[in-house]
């Protein structure tokens, strides 16, 4: 049997008698995001709620999405950097300081951390996209292990005193692979900021 060809609106349909079968409907592949573990492997090597080293850091995926959403991400990053620069001035070296309570201070670049909602997040750090290096710093000061709750060593014993760990809130640009349309956001994290000395009443 001869084939019949119909042309309508630029579409050519070839009808092969009763043997014609319509093509299968096209189905768009379902997007399946790569979920990060609720508790990352790096947390197993530390008692802190942040990781400075992470062998499973998704650097390739982060850079890919940074390139894809360049302008929008840069706008968020500039907002975070401006705030961070005012607080730590992007310092990496410490200067001599005197403390009433023994403590350890450092300027760090966390790769993962627990946010104020108790969720581990991937922090955009130590990666580069279109010539922009993404670096987010935080100043951390922690009471020495045997200092918290003890009397302040530089305060006279005639005063009631106690060393207390204080925290401060930081805002970081984070990567969330479960958000297909824009996998970046600014979230809040609480990190140790000082080992403060509480001084109470005078007593003989």
Describe the structure.
- GO terms for molecular function: growth factor activity; Toll binding.
- Residues 1-17 form the signal peptide.
- This is Spaetzle domain-containing protein.
- Keywords: Disulfide bond, Glycoprotein, Signal.
- It comes from Daphnia pulex (Water flea).
- This protein has helices at residues 59-68, 70-88; strands spanning 4-8, 11-15, 50-51, 103-108, 112-114, 120-123, 127-129, 132-134, 138-143, 159-175, 184-202.
- It is built from 2 helices and 11 strands, in the order E-E-E-H-H-E-E-E-E-E-E-E-E.
- It has one domain (41-78, 94-202): Cystine Knot Cytokines, subunit B (Ribbon).
- The chain is mainly beta and 204 residues long.
- Strands 3-5-6-10-11 form a 5-stranded antiparallel sheet. A two-stranded antiparallel sheet has the order 1-2. A two-stranded antiparallel sheet has the order 4-9.
- The radius of gyration is 28 Å and the shape is elongated.
- A hairpin with a 2-residue loop joins strand 1 and strand 2.
- Mean pLDDT is 82; it is low at 1-16 and 89-94.
Radius of gyration: 28 Å
Number of helices: 2
As laid out across the biggest beta sheet, the strand order is 3-5-6-10-11
CA-based shape = elongated
Short characterization:
14% of the residues lie in helices and 36% in strands. By secondary structure, the protein is mainly beta. Pfam families: Spaetzle.
Task: Quickly list its features.
204 residues; mainly beta; Cystine Knot Cytokines, subunit B; five-stranded antiparallel sheet; two-stranded antiparallel ribbon; 2 helices; 11 strands; disordered N terminus; Toll binding
